[in-house]
């Protein structure tokens, strides 16, 4: 004889557990979407940074020296395409990491679909998008400056044995700030806060 199962658990607790389970299963696709959007934004931000950096520094990015030192063994200026491709790859990976670390949900921007929630005005949607862009810009700036300090202290000085002059350091940090401003704004304009 079977005894019917009766729950003695708190119904409110059961609802919270169900909501937590649903949230956990949603988090993996959300994280993947943030990483993908971050990689796209990082790629574009690296293009912007490189467009700023090349005419100012009149030299290839440090990835040319990296390639020369660890792969080819010849002059860094002999590999401009590889140096730029590697720079874009690093920028995209940096953007993907940014996407994973920031508190945004990719791909669900209300303004991007041409529709908005019932009861909300288009002005509210525009303000929300602008707010995400500002937050993204701030997060991107902090992230890029952290990358820049790491790049200078570890990559340039220790890995590549470089001792950049003051003006080279300035261009290096300014270029990364351009990257961060672009990355954060692009990422923020294409994502919405997780709620």
Explain what you see.
The chain has 195 residues and is mostly helical. The chain has one domain (34-110, 125-193). It contains 5 helices and 2 strands, in the order H-H-H-E-H-H-E. A two-stranded antiparallel ribbon has the order 1-2. It starts with 10 loop residues before the first helix and ends with a strand. Residues 106-116 have low confidence and may be disordered. Residues 1-24, 108-127 are annotated as: Disordered. Residues 10-19, 117-127 have a biased composition (Basic and acidic residues).
Number of domains: 1
Number of strands: 2
Major sheet size, sense and barrel closure: 2 strands, antiparallel
Rg, Å, rounded: 23 Å
Spans of 5+ residues with little confidence (pLDDT < 50)?
106-116
Structure classification? mainly alpha
Large-scale geometry: elongated
Strand order of the largest sheet: 1-2
Alpha carbon gap, first and last residue: 47 Å
Query: How helical, in percent, are the residues?
Result: over 70%
Question: What amount of the residues lies in strands?
Answer: under 5%
Order of helices and strands: HHHEHHE
Number of helices: 5
Whole-number mean pLDDT: 82
Biased composition (Basic and acidic residues): 10-19, 117-127
Region (Disordered): 1-24, 108-127
Which characteristics define this entry?
195 residues, mainly alpha, two-stranded antiparallel ribbon, 5 helices, 2 strands, 72% helix
Topology summary:
Blueprint lengths: L10 H47 L5 H10 L7 H22 L2 E3 L15 H38 L6 H24 L1 E3 L2
Antiparallel strand pairs: 1-2
Helix pairs in contact: 1-3, 1-5, 2-3, 4-5
């Amino acid at each position: 004889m079977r005894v019917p199962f009766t729950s003695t658990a708190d119904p409110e607790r059961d609802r919270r557990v169900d909501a937590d389970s649903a949230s956990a299963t949603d988090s993996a696709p959300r994280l993947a979407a943030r990483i993908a959007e971050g990689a796209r934004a990082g790629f574009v931000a690296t293009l912007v940074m490189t467009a700023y950096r090349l005419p100012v520094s009149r030299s290839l990015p440090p990835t040319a020296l990296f390639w020369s030192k660890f792969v080819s063994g010849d002059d860094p200026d002999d590999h401009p395409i590889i140096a730029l491709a590697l720079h874009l790859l690093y920028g995209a990976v940096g953007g993907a990491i940014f996407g994973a670390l920031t508190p945004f949900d990719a791909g669900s921007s209300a303004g991007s679909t041409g529709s908005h929630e019932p009861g909300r005005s288009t002005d509210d949607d525009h303000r929300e998008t602008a707010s995400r862009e500002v937050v993204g810009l701030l997060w991107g700036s902090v992230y890029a400056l952290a990358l820049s300090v790491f790049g200078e202290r570890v990559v340039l000085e220790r890995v590549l044995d470089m001792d950049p002059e003051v003006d080279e350091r300035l261009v290096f940090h300014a270029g990364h700030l351009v990257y961060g401003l672009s990355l954060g704004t692009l990422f923020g304009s294409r994502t919405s806060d997780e709620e």
